[in-house]
């Protein structure tokens, strides 16, 4: 093998690892890909994998040691993760040459948006309406969540086009949503504003997946990666809480007027309909392939059913554990079917339906309000609950596969 070929192979797997980091793969899976792809190409490599940086060190040659480092300064869109998953599978098994792999990776990174911006805004409004039916099914909240979802969708699209503003979008969105809700409640003479009514338009900013991945990586002794994700997740929650608190102070509201009590004025069937509405919104906003719709419907209903049953049997905190466990096992099982989407693509939409992400916003906001003594610990426990559910699902899946292999 020539030195040029070695360098090309190392550059390809380094860039592929960086793309996995930009697609929010845990570093454990990135390292597995680097190891298996290196073995498939016959290269004894050493490597370093972090969420936003990958370095691959090749074998020593007569002219020195080949070292390639790669990183992406932006996250991949949800629709880009589907062709990326196929490329990862081909690289792990050595079914693609490094030159073709780099060409496919370049094509993935250059993919245009599937739908125009107006469709993305429409999708986010529909997604917000679906979550409103799941969390706070009242006619007024459904209307408000839909309209505010359109507004936040515009903010998200603007953030994509102007990267310098992207980091301000969560706080600005939280402030705008809260200010409109509080001002409307004051004008209508309502005595409180439900925090659950604020969450559907802000759902895209809830870092449930980031915090869950952080706990998984910390458990796997990936301290640097896990700590950085954990800090990032809590900073995201803090931005949302900051926007809400600024709105309450400017409009003369206080923490006691922010209620987390659940209200259902439509009917017990509304959350189940809301899950379907949410799935349609996800298809338009995140723009995955149309073939993803039946899998999406299956996975979100499975996650919601696991959460619902867990809440009935064990209570609200354990519902996150049950939802995470069921979601993970279902996603891994589905991903093994031919033509099924990758497991990681199915897990993200399921996260936005689980309790801990939503409770994170409620808890941190109440931390500065009337119920601060118990809200923050409850929030941490609820978030760890879904992370442990994810881990339990992974362990259960691995044990099942191990028993199948060990069976005569």
TrEMBL record:
One of its GO terms (molecular function) is transmembrane transporter activity. Residues 11-250 form the Threonine/serine exporter-like N-terminal domain. Keywords: Membrane, Transmembrane, Transmembrane helix. The chain crosses the membrane at residues 140-158, 165-185, 197-218, 230-249, 269-287, 292-310, 316-334, 346-369, 375-397. This is Threonine/serine exporter-like N-terminal domain-containing protein. It comes from the Bacteria. The keyword RNA-binding does not apply. The keyword Membrane applies. PANTHER family: PHEROMONE-REGULATED MEMBRANE PROTEIN 10. Belongs to the ThrE exporter (TC 2.A.79) family. Pfam families: ThrE.
